[in-house]
């Protein structure tokens, strides 16, 4: 039980900044965010699928604290990515994926899923997060696809983009530039 309730400073600060109305939701989110802190960088690279940026977006939506100043404060709390990648598909594709996931889940897991209606609000929150990251000179890459196969094909684009940014930063440092 102590492992479920254990937390880290980032988790505590985020949940204080964007408190959730239900204890059960707070517990579930606490476990998720604290788990992100356990990821380790390998050769200076950390890849998180649905990492801190998704956690901030979800907390903002669920706590109804979606104003830009709160989101900016939340970004001050978490380790920020060198490059944030958003994979975007149509609402129809998202609904199809959600229905497929529901078909493989039990009732308890389905209850914890976000309703598809939340997608539009989350997109608005991610737009604010993207703008805040860009204001901090961090890279944001949005990849749009018609379906899942388009997104799989985008992996090479994402990899090339991340490597190009890393290379550009290394060159900048080599020439004495202050590089984020």
Helices and strands in order:
Blueprint: H1 2-5, H2 9-17, H3 23-36, H4 52-63, H5 68-77, E1 83-88, H6 91-103, H7 107-112, H8 118-135, E2 139-144, H9 148-174
Parallel strand pairs: 1-2
Helix pairs in contact: 2-3, 2-5, 4-5, 4-8, 5-8
Quick gist of this model?
By secondary structure, this protein is mainly alpha-helical.
The helix/strand series, from N terminus to C terminus, equals: HHHHHEHHHEH
Any idea what the shape is? globular
Structure summary, number of beta strands: 2
Helicity level: 55-70%
Kindly report how far apart the N and C termini lie.
Answer: 40 Å
Biggest sheet statistics: 2 strands, parallel
Task: Report the uncertain regions.
Answer: none
The Cα radius of gyration reads 18 Å
Query: Order of strands across the widest beta sheet?
Result: 1-2
Q: What fraction of the residues are assigned to beta strands by DSSP?
A: 5-15%
Could you explain how this protein is built, in words?
The chain is mainly α. The chain has a domain at 1-79. It is 63% helix and 7% strand. The mean pLDDT is 78.
Features:
180 residues, 63% helix, mainly alpha, 2 strands, two-stranded parallel sheet, 9 helices, single chain
């Amino acid at each position: 039980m102590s492992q479920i309730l254990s937390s880290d400073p980032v988790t505590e600060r985020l949940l204080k900044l964007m408190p959730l109305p239900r204890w059960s939701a707070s517990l579930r989110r606490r476990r998720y965010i604290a788990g992100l802190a356990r990821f380790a960088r390998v050769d200076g690279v950390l890849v998180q699928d649905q990492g801190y940026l998704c956690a901030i977006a979800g907390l903002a939506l669920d706590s109804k604290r979606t104003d830009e100043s709160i989101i900016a404060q939340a970004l001050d709390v978490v380790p920020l990515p060198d490059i944030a990648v958003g994979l975007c598909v149509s609402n129809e594709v998202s609904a199809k994926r959600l229905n497929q996931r529901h078909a493989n889940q039990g009732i308890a897991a389905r209850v914890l899923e976000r309703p598809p209606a939340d997608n539009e609000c989350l997109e608005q929150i991610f737009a604010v997060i993207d703008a805040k990251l860009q204001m901090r000179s961090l890279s944001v890459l949005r990849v749009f696809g018609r379906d899942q196969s388009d997104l799989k094909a985008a992996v090479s684009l994402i990899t090339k983009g991340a490597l190009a940014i890393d290379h550009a930063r290394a060159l900048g440092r080599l020439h004495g530039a202050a590089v984020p």
